[in-house]
Amino acid sequence: MSLFRNSIYNIYDFLQGSYAKKNFGILQLINSRDSDSEQMTVYNNEQIQRVMQYLQDVPYYQDINTAKALPNTFFELPVVNKEIIRKNYAKFISRKFSDDKLVVRKTSGSSGTPFVVKQDIGKRRKIQAEVTYYYQVLGCKPGDPLIIFRATTERTKISKISRYLMNYSEIDVRGLDDNSIRRVLEILSKSKSALCVGYSSTLDAIGDYFDRNGYPEKGAYNLKGFISTSEALKEQTRIAIEKAFECPCISRYSNMEQGIIAQEISGYQGHIINEAHYLVELLKIDQDLPAVDGEVGRIVITDYFNAGMPFVRYDTGDLGILGYVEIDGNRKRCVKSIEGRITDVIFDINDQPVSPHQLSVSFWDAEEISQFQFIQTAKGEYLVKLILKYDSQINEKKLKQRLLDLLGEDSKIRFEIVSKIEVLASGKRKYIINQMKDNKYFLF
């Protein structure tokens, strides 16, 4: 049946002008190049010039200064974020596109009001090619079985015929207690050669289930792999999933506004950037100046192809570290680590930002902890919610001292033992939260 569905996909693409095949070929070609090669420099410059042409028809960029003219160079363009776009929404739509020529996309709104994005048909075709290209990294072709872990709602549901043609199924993950996980595992045991995609916090819960209840026998599952999305994938979760299911577990960095920005390749460290479609910058946390490789900074992305509503130098609100990884003799630009959302940056007693990774590391060897949630409630005040493994005791004094070493000796830290961590409407579970009312990054 997968072969039949793949044939239907190819025939449909041919009748539409073979856009998927052409865009897939471009992705393969561009993303196979060395990031520092002359070819890539020429390609990036060409795409930047294309973007500058798009902006001639976008009112927001015509209103930047009194001369009604764009800056001379791309890197003089202002950095924008979700809040700026919301406040000037109509001005970010290109005058060249009527409303009926644009496709509307919405974010989940799990951290606030859903964000509405408009994309032209060319951009939609680029996204379709991305999806196909990055699924094939794990050997999944159009028509092969695909399982999505998500919080299912009426808005997210797709038709039965679409599910059939795409060989696509959903597993609702709004509840992930042990009984729910057992039901998920029963479904996965019957799924042959499927690729699974879900939030990393969902995989955290499944990995933790195996840690507490034991791992299955060899050959219990026959899956192609797992792709973790949305939040950073913990290394201990990757290890648990790969041990239990005997298949690769990799992380994807993507968003609803733009598409698939970067994805890991099994066996290599870092999310390899989709340089065919995006320019990724890393700026300092509190200034619109370049951060250096190895420094935690704000991830700022330019989409080369959405002419209908250009996202140019768009601050995603994510923190990360950029660098390089060598693959088959080529140096490839990558996101070495994703450090969380800037709105959830935790500050120490001296108002200095603390890396989410540093916080997570503090809990790694606490084997009695099943899940945690770290909340900053005020300056120097923190609440740590803990779910303990069955019949476990927490060495609170040891954990508290480790956190005091990180946050400052005068910090006030409270612990609370809970039975569950609240789930957002999207199905995500946030492990680090800043609830301070005067958080200066709240608007990102």
Describe what this molecule looks like in 3D.
With 444 residues, the protein is an alpha/beta fold. The chain folds into 2 domains: 2-274, Rossmann fold (3-Layer(aba) Sandwich); 345-434, GMP Synthetase, Chain A, domain 3, CATH 3.30.300.30. Helices cover 30% and strands 27% of the residues. It is built from 12 helices and 19 strands. It has helices spanning 2-15, 19-31, 38-55, 59-62, 82-87, 121-136, 160-166, 178-189, 200-213, 235-245, 356-361, 396-407; strands at residues 102-106, 116-120, 146-150, 168-172, 192-199, 222-229, 249-255, 259-264, 271-273, 278-283, 297-303, 314-327, 330-341, 346-347, 353-354, 369-378, 381-388, 412-417, 432-434. The strands form 4 sheets. An 11-stranded mixed sheet has the order 4-3-5-6-7-8-9-13-12-11-10, with helices on both faces. It has a 4-stranded mixed sheet with strand order 18-17-16-19. A two-stranded antiparallel ribbon has the order 1-2. The longest helix is centred in the first third of the chain and has 18 residues, at 38-55. The protein is globular and about 60 Å long. The relative contact order is 0.12. The mean pLDDT is 84.
